[in-house]
Amino acid sequence: MNTSFELHPDLARDGVEVGHLRLSRLLLMKEARWPWLVLVPERAEMRDLHDLEPLDQYRVCDEITACSEVLKRLYAAQKINVAALGNMTPQLHIHVIARFSKDPAWPKPIWGALPMQPYPSAALEARVHELRQALNL
């Protein structure tokens, strides 16, 4: 883990920590409509995927694949969306989102589609526990 790494306040506000992968801190977004993970490579001063060293690029791709497979298996997602936008939050972070043809934003992107719907406290704790178990964290 990089000791100079600090999680951007936007990510800390909008997500809850699920655990630590080999390279990334894994967050669950506090949006209850979608199983929505965010991977934040624990490297200081990173904004884009190509800013990572080649080995870290490989590691984060491996983590994206593992998270995608878990979301698909746990929630029977029809599509997994993966995105690294960073226009609003400059710290490198990768969204991995389970999508369904009957979700309220389908087939459009979820950003800004609807006001945020927070998890009830018990449901958030259960989802985090379920993800930790599935990812062996």
TrEMBL record:
The HIT domain, residue ranges: 37-106
Domain of life the protein comes from: Bacteria
InterPro entries: HIT-like, HIT-like_sf, HIT_Hint
Name of the protein in its database record: HIT family protein
